[in-house]
Structures are given as structure tokens and as C-alpha cells.
Design a protein that fits this description.
Blueprint (H helix, E strand, L loop, with lengths): L1 E7 L11 H4 L4 H14 L2 E7 L3 H14 L2 E5 L8 H8 L5 E5 L21 E4 L4 H14 L4
Parallel strand pairs: 1-2, 1-3, 3-4, 4-5
């Protein structure tokens, strides 16, 4: 069965509670369920994770090299500065969809640059929790070579 890793970075465990005016009121647990539903419809399965630790985030990307058919990732603040995360994404040879709840390009100057986007297959930003369903649906299609 097609396997999609959905990997979330720092502070995303606080979704629902954290700056709801920016990130919405949907919790990460609810987003996980949305991702599972979309994947199931596409005949795929999701391995959904979150960490506040950069090393763990990178280890999971390495694991995806062997175990995933596509990756959806929200690198959160790592997006803007972590060349280590960008290089781990670069080392993947499966499709990678970068997702952000907010439109990072319409926010503070420091958020407008993603070091991950140049090595991602696609980017979804500004759709809130719905962005994850769009990203997972796209990842399923890309994994099956339909993208
Ligand atoms: C975010 C945007 C980042 O700038 C921020 O650090 C996050 C969440 C988003 O999903 O909109 O933690 O990745």
C-alpha cells in the first residue's frame, strides 16, 4: 500500500491553542484524522508525526528514504533557517509536498523565505488545515506517478 509520511515540526503540537487567529482552531490530532481520511480514499496510508527536535525531524526524513512513497512536511520554523532539513529533503528521491497553514509569503519578512521550497516538489500555503488534505491528496497522486 502507498505510504505517505506526514512530518510536522516545532510548536505544531500546540495547534488549536497557538495563535488561533493565524493558525486556526483545528488541532493537530484533527488534522491527522483529515489526512488519514484523504489517504484512505486514495488507497494509501499515512504515518503522521510531530517533533520539536530538529535532529528527530531529520532522522524521520532519513527513515522516509526507505519507508515512504511520498512525504508531506510542515517544517514550521525550520522552514526559514534549517539548511540541515533542506539537505535531508534534498536527499529524498520520493515526491515531497511542503505545507504551511498560513501564507508565509504574506507575513513577516523573515518568514517569506523558505530554504526547503527550492528542494520540494510542491508547496501549499495559506489554506489552513485544509492545506494538509490538499497536500496529502497531491502526495498520493505523485507517489502513484499521476502527478
Ligand atoms: C508555519 C509557518 C512558520 O513560519 C511557523 O514557524 C510555523 C507554522 C505554518 O504552518 O504556517 O510554526 O509553518
Amino acid at each position: 500500500m502507498t505510504k505517505i509520511f506526514v512530518i510536522n515540526g516545532p510548536n505544531l503540537n500546540l495547534l488549536g491553542d497557538r495563535e488561533p487567529e493565524v493558525y486556526g482552531t483545528t488541532t493537530l490530532k484533527e488534522i491527522e484524522q483529515l489526512c488519514r481520511d484523504v489517504a484512505r480514499e486514495a488507497g494509501a496510508e499515512v504515518d503522521f508525526r510531530q517533533t520539536n527536535d530538529e535532529g528527530t525531524f531529520i532522522d524521520w526524513l532519513h527513515e522516509a528514504r526507505q519507508s515512504a512513497d511520498a512525504v508531506v512536511l510542515n517544517p514550521a520554523a525550520f522552514t526559514h533557517h534549517s539548511y540541515a532539513v533542506a539537505e535531508a529533503v534534498s536527499a529524498l528521491d520520493v515526491p515531497v509536498v511542503e505545507v504551511h497553514l498560513s501564507n508565509i509569503y504574506s507575513r513577516e519578512e523573515w518568514r517569506r523565505r523558505s530554504v526547503v521550497s527550492p528542494v520540494a516538489t510542491a508547496v501549499v500555503a495559506g489554506l489552513g488545515a485544509r492545506g494538509y488534505t490538499v497536500a496529502v491528496a497531491a502526495a498520493c497522486e505523485l507517489a502513484e506517478g499521476k502527478g
